[in-house]
């Protein structure tokens, strides 16, 4: 998923092309996907990310750019995509193949959300704008999910590789330190 506007990042570069460790975040994510058991990866772009689309050497699915959920729905409607499907946000520069394989191993059917404790994000010093309570614990979505036909399972982890989303320049500094 690399079609967001990235307004909180406060940069002139499209968010997926923002460099962490001297490499665009989207390239880091595609590198992680290529190291994993994932067979085929599609870049889900929007009108907000034309430079990202031009940059990528991967098949793209163009969405309207109406927000994450609407764009995800549009991508899932593409005839090339069938569920279950692993979805990954382009703002996760610490991802690698082994953590994605752990997510795939944790998936037992239906849909799976990968969550981190909100306290872990705060401990790392990264933004936690979206949190909610699940089973008595404040958690944050990571941007990694398996979308299936049914179900709403969750996998909770404190793993830094999925805990650090780069939404702000301060998040980018933390990611740089952890590389």
Describe the structure.
- The structure is a single chain.
- The protein is α/β, with parallel strands linked by helices and about 180 residues long.
- It has one domain (about 5-179): Spore Coat Polysaccharide Biosynthesis Protein SpsA, Chain A.
- It has 7 helices and 9 strands.
- Strands 5, 6, 7, 8 and 9 form a 5-stranded mixed β-sheet that branches. A two-stranded antiparallel ribbon has the order 1-2. A two-stranded parallel sheet has the order 3-4.
- A hairpin with a 2-residue loop joins strand 1 (about 20) and strand 2.
- It is globular, with a radius of gyration of 15 Å.
- It starts with 18 loop residues before the first strand and ends with a helix.
- About 35% of the residues are buried.
- The model has no long low-confidence stretch (mean pLDDT about 95).
- One of its GO terms (molecular function) is nucleotidyltransferase activity.
- InterPro entries: MobA-like_NTP_Trfase, Nucleotide-diphossugar_trans.
- This is NTP transferase domain-containing protein.
- Keywords: Transferase.
- It comes from Haloarcula salinisoli.
């Amino acid at each position: 998923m690399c079609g967001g506007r990235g307004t909180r990042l406060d940069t002139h570069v499209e968010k997926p092309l923002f460099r962490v460790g001297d490499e665009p975040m989207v390239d880091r994510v595609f590198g992680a996907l290529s190291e994993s058991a994932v067979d085929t990866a599609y870049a889900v772009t929007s009108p907000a990310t034309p430079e990202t689309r031009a940059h990528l050497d991967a098949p793209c699915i163009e969405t309207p750019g109406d927000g994450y959920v609407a764009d995800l729905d549009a991508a899932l409607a593409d005839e090339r995509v069938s569920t279950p499907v692993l979805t990954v946000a382009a703002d996760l520069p610490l991802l690698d193949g082994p953590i994605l394989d752990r997510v795939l191993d944790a998936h037992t059917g239906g849909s799976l959300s990968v969550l981190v404790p909100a306290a872990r994000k705060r401990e790392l010093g990264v933004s936690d704008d979206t949190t909610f309570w699940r089973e008595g614990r404040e958690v944050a979505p990571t941007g990694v999910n398996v979308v299936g036909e049914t179900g709403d399972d969750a996998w909770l982890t404190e793993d830094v590789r999925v805990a650090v989303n780069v939404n702000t320049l301060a998040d980018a500094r933390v990611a740089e330190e952890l590389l």
